[in-house]
Amino acid sequence: MSPSKDSTLDFGVFYNIVDGKKRTGIDVHHGVNPVTGDELWDCPIGTQQDVDDAVTAAKKAFPAWSATPLEKRKEMLRKFSDLFSAHSEEFTTLLCKESGKPRKFAGIEVAGVNDFIGWHCSLNIPEERLEDDEKVVTTVYQPLGVVGAICPWNFPLILAIGKIAPALLTGNCVIVKPSPFTPYTGLKLVELAQEIFPPGVVQVVGGSNDLGAMLTIHPGIAKISFTGSIATGKKVMESGAKTLKRVTLELGGNDASIILPDVDIEKVAPEVVMGAFQNSGQVCVATKRIYIHQDIYKPFLEAMVKFTKSIKVGSSDEEGVLLGPIQNQMQYEKVKGFFADSKAKGYKFAAGSPDITASKGYFIQPAIIDNPPNDSRIVAEEPFGPIVPTQPWSDEEEVIARANNTNTGLGACVWGKDVAHAEKIAMRLDAGSVFVNSWEKPTPQAAFGGHKESGIGTEWGTRGLISFCNAKAIHVYK
């Protein structure tokens, strides 16, 4: 990939960025193109010294950055957004290479970076004032200091900027750790940021998973913002507790969609399928359990199957491709395990095949499992891939209880023509984000977080800013 005109950014060489400077490493790792299975570019593996140096640089930069007026910080974020826009084509191609996403959807993610920055720049840091005859109490929100942003591989750009933008806006310095499966866009994003922000304000240290532990235990880091699995999130919380770090954890989900009997089947069924299979099912808030009223179960399932059979799976630049491959071999093998288990247990494949065709990339045709039991793996666990179960229901109280019968609570959907009735059901679903007559579409304007083991705290929205701050109450007596 060639850089944009008049740009010095080289999209074929990758560095960690510490104190505004490019760093190589003694050891390197590389991502893999999931379309071909071929190795991509080398990236340096960050060390404890890199982390220590990054924390030192961030702490040095913090006093001046936190004292920079809010409007000036917004101005710099907007300049960064403009600079990023000038490289949108290169970032889209890079994202296709490392993630395997169809180009259309890679382009949507790249455009979303500017949406996230723009939204955050429309916000102000809240301040609350209470006055009575005796005193005035003003509550202000001040930056924490150094933030560690640990990012996943499924949306490496959006989920990085979703941490970077509010952290910088509120006056924090941030150290980004991209996933070793998709390191490239995150490394290049932060390298580009050096053209706008002072050294030490935004840095990136990538490499092995050991880096996550180095960040979470480091006494110089005040907060960890983590997006990833429940198991790793628990480790982040445990190690962060040693220094009483603030943590925001956005973890896995097992989202239920409840289909009411009054829906327009032909219109809604394809939308429900999209909720399950978007990004090849590699979405924390993807629909992962579908409960269809028994009166429409058969025709609704048939409409889902019809649409699923029309979905084209392929490489990023193939015409008409809707789904790309699974992003990495580890996840590919995990998803294959759900297919194998469903086949071994004799569950009915309404769409797709229990046997996955071998290919040079990590491709899987989407599958729908017709009415497996409640205790089956495909119902009880999160596959994070293009396979979803459907079950019929008849009693509303029972299906709400079934939807809530999980240790997770990230997202959920309710579909029905009677919107008021659907909203009443939505209020009773134990999830951080519930969507009525839409599949799961998180937006930066709304708080995003999970109930139960799906996470701690929220990101995005107006509340997301506060999560990067300490509250301070100033009591002034008259």
TrEMBL record:
<dbReference type="GO" id="GO:0004029">
    <property type="term" value="F:aldehyde dehydrogenase (NAD+) activity"/>
</dbReference>
<dbReference type="Pfam" id="PF00171">
    <property type="entry name" value="Aldedh"/>
</dbReference>
<feature type="domain" description="Aldehyde dehydrogenase">
    <location>
        <begin position="31"/>
        <end position="474"/>
    </location>
</feature>
<keyword id="KW-0560">Oxidoreductase</keyword>
<dbReference type="InterPro" id="IPR015590">
    <property type="entry name" value="Aldehyde_DH_dom"/>
</dbReference>
<dbReference type="InterPro" id="IPR016161">
    <property type="entry name" value="Ald_DH/histidinol_DH"/>
</dbReference>
<dbReference type="InterPro" id="IPR044086">
    <property type="entry name" value="LUC3-like"/>
</dbReference>
<comment type="similarity">
    <text>Belongs to the aldehyde dehydrogenase family.</text>
</comment>
<feature type="active site">
    <location>
        <position position="250"/>
    </location>
</feature>
<dbReference type="InterPro" id="IPR016160">
    <property type="entry name" value="Ald_DH_CS_CYS"/>
</dbReference>
<protein>
    <recommendedName>
        <fullName>aldehyde dehydrogenase (NAD(+))</fullName>
        <ecNumber>1.2.1.3</ecNumber>
    </recommendedName>
</protein>
<dbReference type="InterPro" id="IPR016162">
    <property type="entry name" value="Ald_DH_N"/>
</dbReference>
<dbReference type="InterPro" id="IPR029510">
    <property type="entry name" value="Ald_DH_CS_GLU"/>
</dbReference>
<dbReference type="InterPro" id="IPR016163">
    <property type="entry name" value="Ald_DH_C"/>
</dbReference>
